[in-house]
Each structure stands twice: as structure tokens, then as C-alpha cells.
Automatic annotation (TrEMBL):
Coiled coil: none
Top-level taxon in the UniProt lineage: Bacteria
GO BP term, pick one: tricarboxylic acid cycle
Protein name, entry field: Succinate--CoA ligase [ADP-forming] subunit alpha
Active site: 254
Enzyme class of the recorded protein, top EC level: ligase
Family classification: Belongs to the succinate/malate CoA ligase alpha subunit family.
Pfam families assigned to the protein according to its UniProt record, in alphabetical order: CoA_binding, Ligase_CoA
Subunit structure: Heterotetramer of two alpha and two beta subunits.
EC number of the protein: 6.2.1.5
InterPro entries per UniProt: Cit_synth/succinyl-CoA_lig_AS, Citrt_syn/SCS-alpha_CS, CoA-bd, CoA_lig_alpha, NAD(P)-bd_dom_sf, SUCC_ACL_C, Succinyl-CoA_synth-like
Organism: Aeromicrobium phragmitis
Record domain CoA-binding: where: 4-109
Binding locations of substrate: 168
């Protein structure tokens, strides 16, 4: 089992002909993803050449719109590799077409643009992951995003993280156990899928035996997740909060990572999570060791 993405998912790439789209389409195919085409209105009717996971040559059709791509291929997932200025329109188009899962990789999208396409998705069937995220991987089945697919294989751990690089590190640290699904939700002030959404899905997934949750300073998402865990999650959860040494009042890396007073600090988040029964490490390696102990005792 997995959450949100599996080997049956049919994936299209918005921006498939651009530099990032080309590079990551190749890597997603290599990871076994069932990519069925791409979207670029200016290059509709053409194809792009790639190689699939078995080393066979594939010609992927380029469509003029997400709607057309879905009608022709049955696609239910779209990955957006579109420059920030055009990302809102790309997301709106996918939402209007009724795509089930929309993974927005693009970094640097203006917050107002994200707010608009997030609001546009409310009441629809579209789940958004991102923006400014590494996307989602179900090892051995499918990758929608930029997570290196060779870090870890399949296993019993569910991973949800605000940080891309910490997603990769945690997967590497626990590679001998493996993952059902690893999802990078992004660190912008406004994101689609939240820690709570992922925790709920992992709780419902029978193959996920334990969950790693990675947060960072700023906002109150981790505190809210702690409340949710306390009330709804029966599986063991370990956590890590990036930013224990961050100076107060200074934006660190992600646009959402800003601390004011004690609100949003790593210490406050650690306290809230521990009060909910989550074991929290002070470093990624310590967090991985906590998960290792849990898995060995199951």
C-alpha cells in the first residue's frame, strides 16, 4: 500500500519540454513512474523522446492542455515544472480539468498566486502537494517530483517533511528499513497537503507501521499536527524540527520559517510534539535512531 501515488498512477508533466521538466521526466521514468505525456500549449502535437525503467525508448505525446492530456491518456496525476510567473495558471488549469493529484515542484511562486490557486482547489477533487517541494515517492512504484529514487526501497515507514533535503537524509538514514511513501509538503507559508493530511493517510494505510514527521521553525503547523496525533494517530510517530539554533525574528531558508517570540520556535514545537507522545530527536540522525528502536521493537 501507499498514500496518494502508486504504480497505477498515470502521470503527466506540465512543462515537459523545459530544462527541468526534461531532466526530471527522465529520472521519474527511470524510477518506474507511468508517465503518459506532457503539456506545453506551444508544442502541442509533438512528442519528446525518453527511455523507460526497462531501458526501452518511449515517445511521450505533448498536449495543448491538461484537459486534453487527461482525455487522451486517462492521466490522474500532474507534476508542474513551470516557471514561477506561469505556475498559477498551470495549477488552475489542472484543477479545472479535474486532476486528482497536482504536485507543484516550482520554487519562488508569489504567495498571493499560491493563495489563489489553493482557494480555487477548495471544493474540488484535486489534492495539491507543494509548492516549493520535492514531491512524493512510493519507492519501487512511482515518483512524482524530484526525490532521488535510489536512496531507499520499500518498507514500513511513512515520511512527511517540510524540507526536501531532510526528506532525502531521513530516507538515507533509514534505507535499511524502507518506506511506504515519502512526501515532501514544502515550506512555503501556504501549501496544499499538510502534515495532518499525510498523518491521517498514513494512519489509514495498513502497510505503514510507523511515521516520521519533519517540521521546521515558523508557523504553528507542527503544534496543530501534535494535537491531531494525540487525538487520532495510534501508530508510533517520531519527529524532528529543523532550526534549534535559528536566531529569533529572522527568516531562515523557507519563506514560512520565521519565529516571533516563543511562537514557532523549534523548542516550542518539540515540546508540543513530545506532549502528544511523539519522540523528537535534536538531529536527523538522532531522529532516525529513535525510529530504528521503534521498528526493532515492533
Amino acid at each position: 500500500m501507499s498514500i496518494y501515488l502508486n504504480s497505477d498512477s498515470k502521470v503527466i508533466v506540465q512543462g515537459i519540454t523545459g530544462g527541468e521538466g526534461t531532466k526530471h521526466t527522465a529520472l521519474m521514468l527511470k524510477a518506474g513512474t507511468n508517465i503518459v505525456g506532457g503539456v506545453n500549449a506551444r508544442k502541442a502535437g509533438t512528442t519528446v523522446s525518453h527511455v523507460d525503467a526497462e531501458g526501452k525508448d518511449v515517445e511521450l505525446p505533448v498536449f495543448g492542455s491538461v484537459s486534453e492530456a487527461m482525455q487522451e491518456t486517462g492521466a490522474n496525476v500532474s507534476v508542474v515544472f513551470v516557471p514561477p510567473a506561469f505556475a498559477k495558471d498551470a495549477a488552475m488549469e489542472a484543477i479545472d480539468a479535474g486532476i486528482e493529484l497536482l504536485v507543484v515542484i516550482t520554487e519562488g511562486i508569489p504567495v498571493q498566486d499560491t493563495a489563489e490557486f489553493f482557494a480555487h482547489s477548495q471544493g474540488t477533487t484535486t489534492r495539491i502537494i507543494g509548492p516549493n517541494c520535492p514531491g512524493i515517492i512510493t519507492p519501487g512504484e512511482a515518483l512524482a517530483g524530484i526525490t532521488p529514487a535510489t536512496i531507499a526501497g520499500k518498507g514500513p515507514i511513512g515520511l512527511v517533511s517540510k524540507s526536501g533535503t531532510l526528506t532525502y537524509q531521513m530516507m538515507y538514514e533509514l534505507r535499511d528499513f524502507g518506506f511506504t511513501t515519502a512526501i515532501g509538503i514544502g515550506g512555503d507559508p501556504i501549501i496544499g497537503t499538510t502534515h495532518i493530511d499525510a498523518l491521517e493517510a498514513f494512519e489509514a494505510d495498513p502497510d505503514t507501521k510507523a511515521i516520521v514527521m519533519i517540521g521546521e521553525i515558523g508557523g504553528d503547523a507542527e503544534e496543530r499536527a501534535a494535537e491531531f496525533i494525540k487525538a487520532n494517530v495510534t501508530k508510533p510517530v517520531v519527529g524532528y524540527v529543523a532550526g534549534f539554533t535559528a536566531p529569533e525574528g529572522k527568516t531562515m531558508g523557507h519563506a514560512g520559517a520565521i519565529v516571533s517570540g516563543s511562537s514557532g520556535t523549534a523548542a516550542a514545537k518539540k515540546e508540543a510534539l513530545e506532549a502528544a507522545g511523539v519522540k523528537v530527536g535534536r538531529t536527523p540522525s538522532e531522529t532516525a535512531a529513535l525510529m530504528r528502536e521503534i521498528l526493532q521493537s515492533l
